[in-house]
Amino acid sequence: MRKKLSKWLCGSLALSTLTLSGCMMHKPDGTVNDDPFEHYNRVAFAFNMDIDHLVIGPVAKVYDKITPAPLKTGIQNVFANIDEIPTFPNDFLQGNFRYMVVDVWRFAINTTLGIGGLFDVATRLGIQPHIETFGLTLAKWRGGQSAPYFVIPILGPATVQTGMGYAADFYMSIWPYLSNLTTYSAWGVRLLDVRAQYLPADKLIETSFDPYVFVRDAYLQRQTQKIADNQNLSKIPPGK
Q1: Percent of the chain with pLDDT over 90
Q2: Rg of the chain, C-alpha, whole Å
Q3: CA distances in angstroms from 48 to 27, 55, 147, listed in the order given
Q4: Do residues 219 and 83 touch, judged by C-beta distance below 8 A?
Q5: Rounded CA gap, 128 and 146, in Å?
Q6: Nearest Cα residue to 122 out of 136, 143, 137, 105
Q7: d(C-alpha 239, C-alpha 188), whole Å
Q8: Are 149 and 60 in contact (CB under 8 A)?
Q9: 231: which residues sit within 8 A by CB, 6+ positions away?
Q10: ∠ CA(196), CA(201), CA(203), 5° rounding?
Q11: Given the DSSP bridges, would you call strands 149-152 and 156-159 parallel, antiparallel or unpaired?
């Protein structure tokens, strides 16, 4: 079953690679269109919204209501700690060797003293979180450029660049190497927890003139800022 999960993830993301070639459209002023796959993206967005309204959203509301705040914080801390594992190879690929040392040290502290990341001890000691992804690595290799918007079924908004990064980061993480039951259970909890964090934004999306455009623009603005921050990383001391 884990192989099927890996194949599904890579299959969904492979489409972004196929569509990238030959589909880069340009606006009349000559700038790159951020959404050349809009027709497909709207279909995928509608599919994701239907799944969310029918299943994920209602279950996330129950999860949010019955789960004590300290437990939710602990769950988020554990997943954040696991997310730091792909940061190490991406630090290396970007040449951020000073950050790699600090990031490994932060992970070691939270995994041991923080009991598997349940408690964010490193931040209390002044070592701030720093997450790198293969999507950001691709952006750095490309001189800080982003990529066309691309909606992935179930996973949601992305760009071609970040979508390709998801597949690479998946294999850099622990998930492919755990048991099926552990992997699926963890992913299920994580999906609910992330969805619960976005519940306050539901009304904004639903009341917007075009929910698709609202989500797309918000995602692209955030992605652009993350890439810009990552490009300026050398100016910021590690751990700050």
Answers
A1: 74
A2: 19
A3: 28, 10, 21
A4: no
A5: 25
A6: 105
A7: 31
A8: no
A9: 139, 140, 144
A10: 115
A11: antiparallel
Q: How high is the pLDDT of residue 29?
A: 41
pLDDT tens string for the chain (240 positions)?
A: 444 444 444 444 444 444 343 343 344 343 346 899 999 999 999 999 999 999 999 999 999 999 999 999 999 999 999 999 999 999 999 999 999 999 999 999 999 999 999 999 999 999 999 999 999 999 999 999 999 999 999 889 999 999 999 999 999 999 988 888 888 899 899 999 999 999 999 999 989 999 999 999 999 999 999 999 998 876 666 656
Amino acid at 149: Y
Q: Tokens representing 162?
A: 């970040």
Buried b (16+ CB within 10 A) or exposed e, 32-65: eebbbbbeebbebbeebbeebeeebbebbeebbe
Query: For residue 115, what are its two tokens?
Result: 């009991």
Tell me, what DSSP letter sits at residue 178? S
129, 116 contact by CB (below 8 A): no
Which residue has 């489409």 as its token pair?
15
Domain boundaries, the chain: 2-17+47-235
Collapse the DSSP code of 208 into the 3-class scheme (helix H, G, I; strand E, B; otherwise coil) and give the result: coil
